UniProtKB/TrEMBL annotation, chain A:
Key words, A-Z: Signal
TM region positions: none
Pfam family membership, one: Amidohydro_1
Signal peptide extent: 1-22
Residue intervals of the Amidohydrolase-related domain: 306-393
Name of the protein described by the UniProt record: Amidohydrolase family protein
Xref: InterPro entries: Amidohydro-rel (IPR006680), Metal-dep_hydrolase_composite (IPR011059), Metal_Hydrolase (IPR032466), Metallo-dep_Hydrolase (IPR051781)
UniProtKB/TrEMBL annotation, chain B:
CDD domains in the record: Met_dep_hydrolase_C (cd01309)
InterPro entries: Amidohydro-rel (IPR006680), Metal-dep_hydrolase_composite (IPR011059), Metal_Hydrolase (IPR032466), Metallo-dep_Hydrolase (IPR051781)
Keyword set, alphabetical order: Signal
Listed PANTHER family: ALPHA-D-RIBOSE 1-METHYLPHOSPHONATE 5-TRIPHOSPHATE DIPHOSPHATASE
Leader sequence residues: 1-21
Record's keyword annotation contains Signal: yes
The UniProt record lists the keyword RNA-binding: no
Top-rank taxon, per record: Bacteria
Ranges for domain Amidohydrolase-related: 314-402
Protein's recorded name: Amidohydrolase family protein
Amino acid sequence: MNRILKTFCASLLALIPVAAMAQIDGEFVKPRTGKFLLQNATVVTVTKGTLENTSVLVENGKIAQVGTGINASDAEVIDCTGMFIYPGMIDGGTRLGLVEVSSVPETVDYAELGNVTPNMQALTTVNPNAEAIGVTRVSGVTTVLTVPTGGLFPGTAALINLNGYTPDQMYGGFKAIVMNFPSSGRRGRFDRRSDEDIKKDSEKALKEANDIWENAKNYLSLKEAGAELQYYPEMDQLSKAVSGELPLLIVVDAASDIQNAIKWVEGKDIKVIFSGVAEGWRVADEIAKAGIPVITGPVQELPSRQSDRYDAAYANAGKMAKAGVKVAIRTDEEENVRNLPFHAAFAAAYGLGKEEALKAITINPAEIFGIQDQYGSVEAGKRANLVVSTGDPLETKSQIMHVFIDGYRIPMSNRHIRLYQEFLERSPGLKAN
Amino acid sequence: MKKLNFIFAALLGMGLNYSQAQTPKGSVLIKNATVLTVTKGNLENADVLVQDGIIKQVGQNLSAPSGVQTIDASGKYLMPGIIDAHSHVALDVVNEASAPIVAEVRMKDMVNPYEIGIYRALAGGVTISHAMHGSANVVGGQNATLKHRWGSTDPADIIMQDAPRTIKFALGENPTRVHGRGNNIQPRTRMGVEAVLRNGFNEALQYKKSWESYNAAKGQKGNTVAPPVFNERLQTLAEILDGKIIIHCHSYRADEIYMLINVAKDFGITKLVFQHTNEGFKVAPEIAEYTMGASVFADWWAYKMEVYYSTAFNAAILQKNGVITSINSDSAELIRHLYHEAAKTQRYGGLTDEEALSMITINPAKQLGIDDKVGSIEVGKQADLVIFEGHPLSSYAVPQMTFVDGVKYFDIKADKDDQRQFVSATEMVEPVYLHTEEDHQCLQDVDAYFEAFQGAFLDEKH
């Protein structure tokens, strides 16, 4: 009797956790790492041509092998027959992870107060669980530069991979100090300043930039000389651009500003990347001559002037590339970074060409960031950031079938997809009155 | 003599009216294209003959009547002119934000035929846009359906005169922000939005009734009834109740969409189209049953709270639930690649080519009440056509030529560096400003409402 009671109690106890969990229905699929063999695909390596009937082995977060007849019996096999493997796409300029809903100021973390705040770290405020990250990565965009905005030196941008639970797990190994180059043009149609005032303001802003830069230089030489320095985090960070430890990402759009920026950079022994560069096509030869790489975009954008050709923004990347500029593409987006391949497709159609357009969102940004040993192509030894698709991922109709980030197999789901699953055939449907 | 003058004046007036009605009509034979008719399938190596602005023949081996130009479109695609059911291009002013109901104002008074945005839309294959009032009011102004006859200098010539009247409504954050929070008057909530609508329609019913009693009484002998005071605002609302005007309602959340469906049912309104409709997918069966459909963004979301719970699969869910669905731009930029936006329904929901193309042609035509005239390549329809290099749903597609009423208004080979129609001697050309404004224009012109109140509202203009 006693024993029966005991057994009964034990079985009741055993039921408790089950009962407690019963309200959770279904299983959440998490990203998972492992050894994966992506078998029998057309591999678009970007750097080593296109390989038919080729397999890719993913192991320890890396691309272990690319080839045929790979022997990996312990790997999880993913049949990719009829599919294409591309490197993960890289967006060279976004605010992804820094904002949740742009009209709700409490969720907007990309613009700090102040004009000189290079010590504001985008990486600090990257929210690994931002809804837009899940929405973005299933498109095959695996890596983005996330960029703070605001004043003259608004902060430090960081490259992130779109998988991980902490900013450090997501960090992609590249940072840059952002500079919004002082504009010498009108700010918009409501800018009613006289030409003379605009000129004065612009000269003043440039002088301020020079003064700040001079301060950073002084700070650096004092620091290198071993002087005892007061706590000065802005100069401490900016001096890293002066020394070349970090590149300077100069955001600049208008033709005259680009020319001024080229002049400003001249004679400074620093690493520089231009970002935005909407009117680069007007001064493409000068940019090429200066040897400054460019992250341009958005491509799907209006021309900057009423008098411009309708396709000025579409054709910009192609014209710069033709002049010899190294070009990567950015969306300058937050929630719609997933459109990166389509921005690249428009650049391709309006002069850049398909091959160069693909490079502009894979190997070119990797080279510009100096991380081409890790990113930007399907080659053994690189990080396993991979996209498996039914066709060209720049083509709207193509479906992205699998995404790998740092060797993690990413579940092909997000809120947009879950809402589709729930509401496609709603039950109850239309209820009869 | 005075009488004669009057007759002359009347004749002159008629003459003016007549000339206004004479918009350019062209004749052209487009040969050897892959013709995407949208409603009648695809035709390989087919020809389309246009005479005097009307599609006269669709078939093979057609020959051009004398004097009609032939265009060889071998290897290219021909589709109907793209129709944008939500645009603010070519409007000088978008919002009359002064009251929750401003049904009396008309966008056709604000049309600017010089705006370069018209040409840029043509360069993206868009021949018709629905130039809408903004979303500051629960009941906004009356919209204008435009035909992109670039080069016309008379606003009347770019208005599609044979399109039915439509009016803008708006629910949710924008009207509650402008009036409830900006001006401290109803509506501040979505409850208030419903109240504004019901109060407005009830007042219009009374207004209508007072005119009906007056009209019934005035014919009777010896009556002394005074006519009611004419009120353009209530008159317009009454005409909505009479089914003379199609409502196009800015909306995002499912609850507010469902609310308006109920209000419409209670007042016997059936001519109703939802705009934006980001959460339309949640009430797709209801939208399908009771309305003329939904006009949506392909993938915009998360720029404000009421679009946070959106999905890029919205259009596909709506379509598969039987909703007449169109893809719109609401943006001077997006309007230039609606063919690409439509293709996103294939990435997000796997729609067929025909379904995707319908969303920028025949479906918006239905929602604007012009599907008997445009929206497909069929004999007898107005010859609004686009020739594409590459299939229009490809992200690499490039529009080559765009025709309105058989007249070519865009030709990529004849595109000039500066396509503006008119550069005034005083207009500043340099230095220029860069395009920095938000693409959305739904809350354009309401800035003054917040200057004294709270600048923060200005940041968000969608």
